[in-house]
Amino acid sequence: MMTQGKEQFVGIDVCKASLDVAVKGNGETWQENNDPQGISHLVEQMTRLKPALIVLEATGGYEMPVACALGAAGLPVAVINPRQARDFAKSVGRLAKTDKIDATMLARFGEAVRPEVRTLPDEQALELQARLVRRRQLIEMLIAEKNRLHTAHRSVQSRLHEHIAWLEQEIGEIDRDLHDRLRKSPLWREKDDLLRSVPGVGKVTSTTLLAELPELGQLNRKKIAALVGVAPFNCDSGAMRGKRAIWGGRASVRTALYMATLSATRHNPIICAHFKHLRAQGKLAKVALVACMRKLLTILNAMVHSMSSWQPKLSEPKQPIPA
Fold it and tell me: Is 174:134 a contact under the CB 8 Å cutoff?
């Protein structure tokens, strides 16, 4: 079916039930089922083809099984933001949208942009992610039920109390399960101890970073900040100088980092001093807090890279992290 060639780029449009595949280099397109058998067949085909890059969109989790299977086979996989892919399609005049067209445009995007291949989570990390997602869902339900309690009729308040108690019990069980899983893995246990040695970083932040930011310690400070979404981007044109703002990134990681930074501005001497310095310069509290988030992330990134525990006097790595 496929002929091996040089510099071939593959785009895969992921749906709940199917995988539309397009190869930029020989022009072939086909469809596989998005199930274990279809993914296994696709991995075999990609292994024979040996493409320069395989590009998929992030589709709310449907892309993870195929992306992890391809990555486990040693194939170069990049999972990109759907907005990037759609903007690229519009830029080349492709306004129509079908699964086949989307796969073709992803292959063209891979050839033109060459998105960086990121570290994909292994099965253990995926299980950890699933439990973190479930924990966030339970907390959202708990907050909603507690808010309803204030205005609920007394005839249903007892049921609300029962549900609130059940949600709190479920959250506690998930927390214990997350802790047990982290402590059973020697590597995760070591990294967890490193991260939690930093004042302000608790178990939720540490678990979130380990599960949802596998690139921590592997990228330089600018790239890791952009990946999380705490790197400010310029908005300048001609003589106009707009405000710099953060954009994109991994929302769940950024949320955990935000809560850790709030605590660090009170209890972490480096972050506290940095926050006060920025406020003394006239920076808005929100701007100063984002800058502190970036600084805290840089410190954590350097610590994981060097596998060294918290040292207040050393907030930067001794050796540069590879670009």
Answer: yes
